[in-house]
Design brief:
By secondary structure, the protein is mainly alpha-helical. It has six helices and two strands, in the order H-E-E-H-H-H-H-H.
């Protein structure tokens, strides 16, 4: 579960809007069935060092590991995720693809349980997964630098 979706994430609110370290930042999971890779990707503002940006991202990830997710924040994110799911199901192609995905897994009935799975996530679930997955020893970092002209 993430604090992503249509509204801006915690990363965006803090690092783009408040601290103005990045001009854009987002996070997403790769993979769909097996556990995926969490990618945090951002573009630093001019004059901000990579070390400053990385430290700021690390601080937010540390907050998640420490359990700094409120029930209100989680409820907002769950409602956004479920809303995105419901709106995606309005298109027949998306419904067919979701059904085919679960049928391929041998569990076609699971297509109807997505909303309840989203709503079942707890603050404790977020903290436990954050502590398991967001450890420094699990990370790899790739930097892209602008070409100097």
């Amino acid at each position: 579960m993430t604090c992503w979706g249509r509204s801006k994430s915690r990363l965006y609110e803090k690092l783009v809007k408040e601290e103005r370290l990045f001009n854009n930042i987002n996070a997403y999971l790769s993979g769909s069935v097996d556990p995926g890779l969490l990618v945090v990707q951002g573009r630093l503002n001019q004059g901000i060092s990579i070390a400053q940006g990385e430290a700021a991202v690390d601080a937010i990830l540390e907050e998640l590991m420490a359990g700094a997710v409120s029930e209100a924040e989680l409820t907002k994110v769950k409602n956004q995720a479920e809303s995105t799911l419901v709106f995606s199901e309005l298109e027949m192609l998306n419904r067919a693809m979701n059904l085919a995905f679960y049928a391929n897994l041998g569990m076609p009935d699971e297509v109807n349980r997505e909303g309840e799975k989203i709503q079942a996530v707890t603050v404790a679930d977020i903290q436990a997964m954050a502590q398991k997955a967001l450890r420094k020893e699990n990370t790899s970092t790739l930097y892209y630098r602008a070409k100097k002209v």
